[in-house]
Structures are given as structure tokens and as C-alpha cells.
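Please fill in the sequence for the structure shown.

STRUCTURE ENCODING:
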């Protein structure tokens, strides 16, 4: 499978279940960091054409906080986690207990940026760990990079390499809430950009016939 558009609903259901397990692991780690109970869920997993990816987070000119990493090992690829600026600010203010933390105008507080990168580490690492556990594949994340920029600029690097071999990416929605305050939800999106043949490797490992 070289084109994610070939994925069928049950393929996406498998990935959604893996995502929810990874979200559970991430919620446990975030709860420890924040010292209060955090809930996470993956409400939706879908295939999106590359040119439509910016629209998933407000359009190409929307400002976002983004974590980017490469996936190395048996099924290499690229992964982004993007969150709108307001959402990321709220999460990090809660984490570092600093209501003045902001991501709209540099210079940015380095403690807050470090906290944001740690959250990205937790989220991406938990998802990949869950995927690796299910598939028994060796999947290792590189050290994540952090960027505060427009969506179009953030995605440009990852899309340059994948656009030559695929027209689609996998979008994994993520919702983060505090158990005691369900009204304030932080939303983000994982964009999974597989290298050629990586999804065939993953689904073969899961025992799913990708040619059905």
C-alpha cells in the first residue's frame, strides 16, 4: 500500500483503537506532570489529501505550536503534532502555573517552551509506543523539534519529502481535558506521513490484508 487513500474503514478503526490506547498512556504521564487527573481521547482518525492538511487546523496562515519528529525503524515516516496557539498556551499555563505565558509574540519563555516540547515528547512517544506494542515493530522517534509558526510553513518540510510518493496523510485528532474541568478542552492533531510502503509493513504486522 503506497497510497493511504486505499485504507478502508476497518483499517482506520484499528488505528483509532491504537491511538486511544496511546492517548491513555499519555494521559497517565500528563496527569503526573500536572499533578491532577487528565483525560485524553482520539475521537476521529481519517485520511486527508496533503493539500487539505492546513485546513485541519485553521488554514495555511493560522499560527500553531507544532512538534515535528521522524519515525525510524521498521516503518519509517514523519509525524507532526499541531495545536492552535490559544490551546497550547492554556495547556502550558496549566503545566507551569504561569498565567502570563504566551506564544503570540517573541521572545517566548524558555521554561514554557521546554514544557511544550515535553508534552510533545509524551504525546508522540505514547502513540508510537502503542503502535509498536501492537505491531511488534521497531519504531523509534527522533528528538522532536518545536516550532511556533504558520501552519503552511510548519508543514512545508514534511510535505516536501512525502508529496513525491503519496497524495494523502493520516490525521489523528486528540482531545485533552482535565477530569475536574471538562469545559476546557485542548485539541490537537497528529499528522502521520508514512514513507513508501510503511503502512503495508504496519498492517501486515497487525495481520490485516491491505489488498482487500
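FILLED IN BY: designer on duty
SEQUENCE:
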Amino acid at each position: 500500500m503506497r497510497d493511504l487513500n486505499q485504507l478502508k474503514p476497518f483499517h482506520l478503526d484499528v488505528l483509532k483503537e491504537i491511538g486511544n490506547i496511546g492517548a491513555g498512556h499519555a494521559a497517565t504521564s500528563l496527569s503526573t506532570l500536572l499533578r491532577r487527573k487528565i483525560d485524553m481521547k482520539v475521537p476521529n482518525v481519517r485520511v486527508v489529501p496533503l493539500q487539505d492538511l492546513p485546513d485541519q487546523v485553521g488554514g495555511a496562515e493560522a499560527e500553531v505550536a507544532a512538534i515535528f519528529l521522524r519515525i525510524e525503524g521498521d516503518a519509517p515516516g514523519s509525524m507532526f503534532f499541531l495545536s492552535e496557539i490559544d490551546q497550547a498556551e492554556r495547556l502550558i499555563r496549566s503545566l507551569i502555573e504561569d498565567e502570563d505565558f504566551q506564544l503570540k509574540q517573541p521572545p517566548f519563555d524558555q521554561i514554557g517552551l521546554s514544557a511544550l516540547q515535553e508534552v510533545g515528547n509524551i504525546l508522540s512517544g505514547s502513540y508510537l509506543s502503542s503502535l509498536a506494542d501492537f505491531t511488534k515493530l521497531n519504531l523509534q522517534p527522533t528528538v522532536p523539534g518545536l516550532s511556533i509558526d504558520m501552519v503552511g510553513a510548519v508543514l512545508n518540510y514534511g510535505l516536501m519529502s512525502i508529496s513525491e510518493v503519496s497524495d494523502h496523510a493520516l490525521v489523528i485528532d486528540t482531545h485533552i481535558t482535565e477530569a475536574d474541568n471538562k469545559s476546557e478542552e485542548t485539541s490537537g492533531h497528529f499528522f502521520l506521513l508514512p514513507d513508501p510502503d510503511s503502512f503495508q509493513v504496519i498492517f501486515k504486522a497487525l495481520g490485516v490484508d491491505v489488498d482487500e
